[in-house]
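User: I'm putting together notes for a lab meeting next week and I want to include a structural view of one of the chains we've been expressing. I don't have a solved structure, so I'd like a prediction I can at least talk through. The sequence is below, exactly as it appears in our construct file.
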Amino acid sequence: MTVETVVVDHPLVLDALAQIRDRSTPNALFRQHLERIGVLLIAEATRSLGTVDATVTTPLTEAAVQRIAVQPVIVPILRAGLGFLAPAQQLLPRADIGFIGIARNEETHEPEPYVNKLPDNLAQRPVIVVDPMLATGGSLIHTLELLVDRGAPAPMTVVCALCAPEGIGALEASGIDVTLFTATVDERLNDQAFIVPGLGDAGDRQFGTPA
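Assistant: Thanks for the context. Below is the predicted structure for the 211-residue chain, given as structure tokens.
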């Protein structure tokens, strides 16, 4: 099995998930609740980061501490993935940020890349990909393949608010080693490749519908 799926059912995650599912939640509140989910999921997803021993001087004496050994690279998939960027930077202020921009062709449902801003060499750098929704898996797999080409170590970490079983299946079929953290695995995709029950279009719910 190349994909390990971890469902984070913390009560605060579930409460925020209820808010972002609700069609009456306005964009500003949608962004706030999506960030709540992001903080909790990313905190769980970074539990296994390696640490090193160090010493600091407190106002009273010296204390033994632990620091993150290697700062991870955070990769939001644009544009919806921007909803998880602020919580990622809040928790990991020294992390590097890469960007992948992928639009979905509404007729073919296939990914169409338009931005690629990644470090040239990701060897020995933990990588965390963030995107609120895993639907067909096309955008995520394209992103992961780019990261593999740059030497990202396995397994890579992926954080999504909600997933479709079809997307998880596509990820498994890709053969890429991934640990997937999510708030829920929904029922299915509909004929338009939207997650059901889902929350609609995560980008539009955050930023409005483009003209």
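A couple of points you could mention at the meeting. Residues 27-45 form the longest helix (19 residues). Residues 3-207 form a domain with the Rossmann fold fold (CATH 3.40.50.2020).

User: Perfect, that's what I needed.
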